[in-house]
Amino acid sequence: MKKKIWLWNHYATDMYKNQGGRHYWFAEKLISRGYEATVFCANTYHNKAEYIDTGDKKYSKDTINNIPFVFVKTTSAFDNGLARVKNMGLFYLNLLSAAKNYSKIDGKPDIIIASSVHPLTMVAGIQIAKKLKVPCICEVRDLWPEAIFAFNKANENTFLGKLMIAGEHWIYRKADALIFTKEGDTDYIKEKKWDTGHDGDIDLKKCHYINNGVDLNAFIKSAEENVVDDDDLIADKFNVLYVGAIRPVNNVGIILDAAALLKKEADIQFLIYGDGNQLDMLRQRVLSEGLTNVKIKGYINKQFIPYILSKSSVNILNYSQSQYNWARGNSSNKLFEYMASGKPIVSTVKMGYCILDKYKCGLSLEECTGAQLAKAIYHIKNMPKDKYEEMGRNARNGVKNFDIEVLTSKLINVIESI
């Protein structure tokens, strides 16, 4: 008999639209291996006014490429203020109702996989699983509330901070299994002394590591089929690429600092793709500083990213050193897209459990400065050809361990273990 799996992710609506991403791929691969998988998500798109109309109901359903999606009614949110809190709260409340009603129509699941980013999805997963008398796996893709404390949006020593930490502990204790996307995240449990090794109540045997990754075959196919008409990409230049969000945590301004130091290198050009609240600031800097070796490309549809990366010479994994705790590793989607492109990578931060070091596919800066970044770019550009190509091959070979087929096998092992 097929096991029925519910995958809950507030923000999987974008995966429905893009027909790709972690839980879309998990559902697709689980179905191909004989499971029934349904994705539950919000009816709103992340940071967009666009939404999926549920009418006067608390949820609606659609099926795309044989994957059932359940859209839970909530409100749009464009910031991280009260609108975001309302968006999360309504999703939680309506998810409880939607899951109850959906189980009456489609039958109850054999297991619920409730994924953060925000913890209310995991709280709902545990509560509904208990009512339905099925196990719940909680997937932690970002350590809340630690990430909130890191951005100074809350103080862990206040009543609210302590309440959030207590709620986090409750989730970890009540979940039948825990999946972390960063290899070192279980260190956090040890630091809190919540594990049984410190006389706590969380058995680390129920903790599992499944990072983000990429559908490698689809990536390669897309690079061949979804071509961008852009002369900069095919110019006879050493292309330094950044593709991703342009926000304070991404610290993209440091790339312009490096570009300023390399202005005299006529064959090096910097191509920056992405959107965010610092995009206009970057464009102004390019103009005011006369950075003719930098092209700010702005938003790019995800389908074109594989082709764009295939034209890179080196990819920049760019973050702020101070606005996040990188000691436990990295689970950013663009890391694996970069690796899939088969090109060397430069990380502006030195991370724990470093994938670049493990697979010898890039360099990590000891100091997050424009000078250090420029030095690393110049070093890779002037490497012997065989060493440069070896670093690229290492990236492509390393990402095979993060191919969605491999990750799905790991997920199935967790499912079957409980």
Features:
Rossmann fold; 17 helices
Q: What is the global morphology?
A: globular
Task: Determine Rg (CA atoms, Å).
Answer: 22 Å
Secondary-structure-based class equals alpha/beta
Count of helical stretches = 17
Number of domains: 2
Q: Tell me the fraction of residues in β-strands, as a range.
A: 15-25%
Task: Please give the order of strands in the largest beta sheet.
Answer: 3-4-2-1-5-6-7-8
Class of the largest domain in CATH?
Alpha Beta
CATH homologous superfamily designation of the largest domain: Glycogen Phosphorylase B
CATH architecture of the largest domain: 3-Layer(aba) Sandwich
Query: Helix share of residues?
Result: 40-55%
Average pLDDT works out at: 94
As residue ranges, the low-confidence spans are none
Largest sheet: 8 strands, mixed
Stated plainly, the CATH topology of the largest domain is called Rossmann fold
- Number of E-type strands: 14
